[in-house]
Amino acid sequence: MRLEEAAALIRDGSTIGVGGFGVSGHPMALLYQLARQEARELTLLGITNGNDADLLAGAGCLKRLETAAVSLEEFGLAPNVRRAVEGGCIALGEYTETTMMDRFLAASLGLSFFPTRVLRGSDVPKVNLDIREIMCPYTGEMYHVVPPARPQWAVLHAPAADPYGNVLYPRADALVEFDRLLSQAADQIIVTVEKIVPPEAVETASREVLVPAFKTAAVVEVPFGAHPCGFGGWYNRDVEHLRYYVGAGRTAEGFQSYLDQHVLGVSGHADYLHRVGGLGHLMQLRLDGAVGLL
């Protein structure tokens, strides 16, 4: 499937969950394509988002964001999200990282709510009326409860998959486990990968399957599909480009210029990669041993 076809599966008004964390591991090529195709009225669910949410906010794709934070880490605040929330263009549902994980877990288990103790003494329930209190029927103890987070679509970036949609991720870490939980919570999954591998690769590495084929609606081969994010074990974040991105986002006019040059004004992902420096620049980001992992 082509990137354009995969992005077209996500209709206006959909609820999506985006894999990755901060400025690492997001399926940026697919998100750029959503912006290019002028997706609108999306609700984004996440744990700690970064330039994924900021890009969609700046491109006018979002109507609501539910997350613990939007952080560009050492590169600064997320200017487009902040501007959109302060201007009333995006509704914000504030949670903590733990309670967002609880929400995805609740969805994966088919639960209508999830109880938690972590919000005791917190002001978060004061600004989020979707967080309620209940009494335990066994002990009489009071708990906060949060609703499930069930995206219609999870969009992920992974190292490899076979043509059927069995997604391989040989490197286990906390980021991978969040992507796994997100995939279990979602109705359907779209995955971009660095490389599509033959089915035999899955047969010999079945323990490394992150998402089974029956859950995958679309898989697209997109080399450097997380750029400018880093992709753990494969390539580093593009520091130069992220600094440029944040600088452009300081004003709405500056970010529109960024969109015109790198999103709306390109013919596709290959053209985007050429504009950000081409193969020579990208190979400088690749980590030693990354090619062997694929």
UniProtKB/TrEMBL annotation:
Top-level taxonomic group: Bacteria
One function term, GO molecular function aspect:
CoA-transferase activity
| Residues in coiled coil | none
Q: What is this protein called?
A: CoA transferase
